[in-house]
Write a structure and sequence with these properties.
Elements (H helix, E strand, L loop, with lengths): L24 H8 L16 E5 L4 E5 L2 H9 L9 H11 L8 H11 L8 H21 L6 E2 H18 L5 H26 L7 H29 L8 H7 L11 H32 L1 H15 L6 H4 L3 H13 L6 E4 L4 E3 L2 E3 L4 E4 L1 H4 L23 H6 L14 H18 E4 L8 E3 L3 E3 L4 E6 L2
Parallel strand pairs: 2-7
Antiparallel strand pairs: 1-2, 3-11, 4-7, 5-6, 8-11, 9-10
Helix pairs in contact: 5-6, 5-16, 6-7, 6-10, 7-8, 8-10, 10-13, 10-16, 13-16
Cofactor: heme
Family: Belongs to the cytochrome P450 family.
Pfam family, one: p450
């Protein structure tokens, strides 16, 4: 694969230039109004453990990898997901397997585990391939005499893939657009609401507006869930072969009770959100990075042609596409879709000579850990080949966590990598990408990491 030794200088993609020193509470409030990562200062990227005192909360940012592993592995069972994260996500996913803690989480996880058999990588490949073929057909019919907005396209294809996996039906364009715009509104409202909550201020209607945006997303698939739920429980429905069917059949390990309709909606919402929003974010950034690095496009195309022999990309080909895999992994390192993971201290403890009182928040930030120069060489540079570098093997093992770590690591990590590789390889084969002569995209971190404005790219036919 091409790298800096081929005469190409490493490309450093955009990220917010950190403040020289820690900002005041007021300035942090203003910058955090739109994006978490814009509140960071220079030492945030190198410190082992930081501490911030807010009016209603003490929180600590842990970058020391031994502390990170202690918190994320949580063998002591004293670092559950923080209630603050639940408040951010409650209008979207309620009390689901993502947000639950303790025994409730263990029981929910046991109930939903059979559903994830439907995300078996070989089993789901045809659905992924169908959605990708539709994506390529859509791009081919678009007006490409001008740059195309990538974000809505990636949201549609990622949402379509998980939609087919959950419900066995395709996601139409109108519904995809509705989801894209509604989730954008949700993020724009929940972020200020979060800052107001942290500072103990009134919410001024932000949470209500976020809840209305969440309801619009639920309205897209709610009717499908309701119809199948009613049919199944009345005994008149045919058994499907998808995630929704597994949730309908699930039973509580102790009581034997099925999920209620509301509980199924919460689980479906979680799987749908996790299955499309994070993937769409990653693929948007990956396409931008490729557009800025034409030599990488050439190298990946040569790899794809060599491994496929010019045939359609099949499930068996993906394992051999190491360059495409490294592109996806490097994108997730530079732009982790979920940039901050929050845990709660439920028993006072000491870490790195700091006393953490019960109720404090511990922040584990993939964004910071994956850009820390103590972990990585040239941490802000785009260098997919680093994942084949023996000198960075330890960092890849311990300091790479876009899907989290420990028992609550994302169960869909393999699913996301397969869909990302298939989409990126298919686009590279069909189109040459160029970035227009406009300012570079600015990442903003709310619930997920997205460009402030939709990424625009030229798509040129390779034929």
């Amino acid at each position: 694969m091409a790298d800096a030794s081929d005469g190409e200088r490493p490309f450093t993609p955009p990220y917010p230039i950190p403040h020289r020193s820690k900002a005041s509470l007021f300035k942090r409030f203003l910058t955090g109004w739109n994006s978490w990562i814009h509140t960071l200062f220079e030492r945030s990227y190198t410190m082992q453990m930081g501490e911030i005192r807010l009016p209603r909360l003490d929180f600590f940012i842990a970058n020391d990898l031994s502390v990170v592993e202690r918190v994320m592995d949580d063998r002591e069972k004293v670092f559950p997901k923080h209630r603050f994260q639940h408040e951010l996500l409650d209008p979207l996913i309620g009390n689901s397997v993502f947000s639950a803690n303790g025994q409730d989480w263990e029981e929910q996880r046991e109930m939903v585990n059979p559903a994830f058999a439907h995300t078996n990588l070989k089993r789901v490949f045809p659905a992924m391939q169908g959605a990708v073929d539709d994506l390529l057909a859509t791009i081919a019919t678009m007006d490409r005499s001008k740059p195309i907005a990538v974000d809505p396209l990636m949201t549609h294809v990622a949402a379509d893939i998980i939609y087919r996996t959950i419900f066995s039906v395709k996601l139409d364009q109108a519904s995809a657009d509705r989801i894209y715009h509604a989730f954008h509104r949700y993020q724009k409202n929940i972020q200020p609401g979060a800052m107001l909550k942290l500072y103990g201020l009134p919410l001024f209607g932000y949470r209500g507006r976020a809840a209305r945006a969440a309801a619009e997303i639920h309205a897209v698939f709610g009717p499908i869930v309701k119809a199948r739920y009613d049919a199944w429980h009345s005994g008149g429905g045919e058994a499907g072969n998808d995630i929704l069917q597994s949730l309908l059949e699930a039973r509580h390990p102790a009581s034997g009770d099925p999920f209620s309709y509301q509980a199924i909606m919460e689980q479906v919402s979680t799987i749908f959100l996790a299955g499309h929003e994070t993937a769409a974010s990653a693929m948007t950034w990956a396409l931008y990075l490729l557009a800025e690095c034409p030599h990488w496009q050439d190298a990946l195309l040569a790899e794809i042609d060599r491994e496929t022999g010019g045939q359609p990309i099949a499930f068996e080909h993906l394992r051999a596409l190491g360059g495409v895999r490294n592109l996806f992994r490097e994108t997730l390192r530079l732009y982790p879709p979920v940039s901050f993971l929050v845990r709660e201290v439920t028993a006072s403890t000491t870490m790195r000579d700091k006393l953490l009182h019960k109720g404090a928040m511990i922040v584990i930030s993939p964004w910071l850990i994956q850009r820390n120069r103590n972990n990585w060489k040239c941490p802000h540079a785009f260098a997919p080949e680093r994942f084949d570098d023996p000198e960075e093997a330890e960092a890849c093992r311990r300091a790479y966590m876009p899907f989290g770590k420990g028992p609550r690591i994302c169960i869909g990590a393999g699913f996301a990598q397969q869909e990302g590789m298939l989409i990126l390889a298919s686009i590279v084969r069909a189109f040459r990408l160029r970035y227009p002569d406009i300012p570079r995209p600015e990442p903003v971190s709310r619930l997920t990491l997205r460009p402030k404005r939709a990424v625009q790219l030229w798509f040129e036919d390779r034929r």
